[in-house]
Amino acid sequence: MTITPAKPSRQIAHLARRRAELVASAQHTIGESGIEAPIEQFAAEAGVSVATLYKHFGSKDGLLISAAVDAQQRWEAWMVEVVSVLPTEIEKFVAAARLVLRGIELQPDLAHMGCSIMRTARPDLSLLIGDLIGRAKRLAAEGAVQSDQLERRVRLYFACLVEEFQRQGSLPKPKPKEADAAVELALGLLGVTPARAKKLVQAPLPPLGEIPQ
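Given the sequence above, the corresponding structure tokens read:
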């Protein structure tokens, strides 16, 4: 016998929608004013009371964490879907890096929020680095990148991307060609030849579609 899961009540669905709206507003506030903005500013820009934010998130830190986790999850899911149409792992790897550095252009609120968090909170990026190392190991097994001192190479590569991401966020207007040039240079740290790096970075990106809201 098949048991159909019970549908969430209207109240639960309403609370989920409201929470999502508050998270989106917080992401915009962080992007505009940074994580150091007072909780009163987050509340005012969301059109709610401070008590309402505490009711949903417990504290300002809870609100910031929810905003950051939501942004990361939506961005990563979108990127995975976009690059999935590419035929090789190295093409997917490079396209994902190019998309990250175009964040200011493609999704300003989320990207400016990321810049603010990196600049002021110095978050622990070990999970992101670990994931990148895992992907680089698969590429090394295929001969697409150098295998010697791979973890060190990946950390230097990641540092280059972070620096360019923050630089793009500081510009009056994003410069995609400069972002691509940074990826091209950084690929050399992984042992990709200049000719191969240029070809990978100059390849057309897949259709981007909409970033999940």
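The chain has a mean pLDDT of 89. Try to locate this feature in the token string yourself.
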